[in-house]
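Page 47, continued from p. 46.
Same chain as before, 134 aa.
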Amino acid sequence: DGYKRMTDILRTSLVFDSFDHLYRALAVIESKIEILRIKDRFQPKIVPFGYRDILINFYCPGSEIICELQLQHEIFYDHKQKSHEIYKKARLFDRGGENLAYSYAQQFAKHQIPDNQDIYSYYESNAGSAPAAA
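Result:
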């Protein structure tokens, strides 16, 4: 029965150029199939940093295999690989309901990134250099 815990054997993504279209698609999907779980990871309280999408799990028709559908906005999808690498590393710092990497970044690094600069270009231009403690 281990396969019942696997939620992404069959996975695909739909990429949208607007949040309006993305959420309209979600409404259509919810009206057409029985949903097991939805994670709206565009909400910062759910995912404090990194990659964003809406994750939908449902049974593959006629089976007990759980499928995963990701609704993605192109602004996040374009950086998915980099975001996922950061996310995998940051998950290692989850301790007692807090992510120590996120807390550190909020306290010492966030103020160093100009408001008008894309985080990925900042990261690439400063790769290898740790932010100085405030």
